[in-house]
Write a structure and sequence with these properties.
228 residues, alpha/beta, Undecaprenyl pyrophosphate synthetase, three-stranded parallel beta sheet, 7 helices, globular, binds farnesyl diphosphate
């Protein structure tokens, strides 16, 4: 969800207004994803590196998350959305931790769209954490070195049952992954859009999906598999 700050600056507005409009774009995107039958939508909402921002901006972002959960959780639940959270809990304020937990608990039996919220998330941190879990299992005698396969590694990531993304969309024109789902993105199709996140909408999502459908996914092999 990149480009909130630039969207605001281009209009002479404070960055906080860009983030507020970013949450509106998020609401629309979640609704559109559900209607389009998308099973998993992962949003990068606060990176482990975002702590380097000024305290006032961090406070704005935490406030938006609080408001998003307090105002939107009931509706997400009504719409059968299951909320999942990936990222580190350490360093988060206690009430934020509780809200994230509440969102997961309330919606855990829902069978519609899985909304995976990457919060205080960094892919390298997630990968290091998975390695730590494997070492702990090995030290406890439950794992041998030859048991460590890509599959076993994946099982120790933050949300092991969430499939690897077919498509990753980054807005704002930047063309990099910035520590997002590095393990899971091995064969993801990447679409970079020139729009700032607050301007992202259902049409932009549909266009990205159409672009994805035109890609040929070979997974390193020769037989073409068509995206669907
Ligand atoms: C990127 O724009 C956006 C973020 C770092 C924060 C996104 C978070 C929210 C919209 C709110 C909190 C989360 C939820 C789930 C409600 P940027 O600030 O990097 O923009 P710039 O690159 O143009 O400065």
């Amino acid at each position: 969800m990149d480009g909130n700050g630039r969207w605001a600056a281009a209009r002479g507005l404070p960055r906080a207004e860009g983030h507020r409009r970013g949450v509106e774009a998020l609401r629309k995107t979640v609704r559109a994803a559900g209607e389009l039958g998308i099973r998993y939508l992962t949003i990068f909402s606060f990176s482990a590196e975002n702590w380097a921002r000024p305290a006032s901006e961090i406070s704005d972002l935490m406030g938006l998350l609080r408001r998003f959960i307090r105002h939107d959780l009931a509706e997400l639940h009504r719409n059968n959305v299951r909320v999942r959270v990936i990222g580190a809990r350490e360093g988060l304020e206690k009430d934020i931790e509780s809200l994230l937990e509440e969102a997961q608990q309330l919606t855990r039996a829902n069978t519609g769209l899985n909304l995976v919220v990457a919060f205080n998330y960094g892919a390298r941190q997630e990968i290091a954490h998975a390695a730590r879990r494997l070492v702990e299992k090995a030290l406890a005698g439950a794992l041998k070195p030859e048991d460590v396969t890509p599959e076993r590694f994946s099982e120790n990531l933050d949300a092991p049952d969430v499939p690897d993304p077919d498509l990753i969309i980054r807005t704002s024109g930047e063309q990099r992954l910035s520590n997002f789902l590095l393990w899971q993105a091995a064969y993801s199709e990447l679409v970079f859009l020139p729009v700032y996140w607050p301007d992202f909408d259902r049409a932009a999502l549909e266009n990205a999906i159409v672009e994805y459908q035109g890609r040929e996914r070979r997974y390193g092999g020769l037989i073409a598999k068509t995206g669907s």
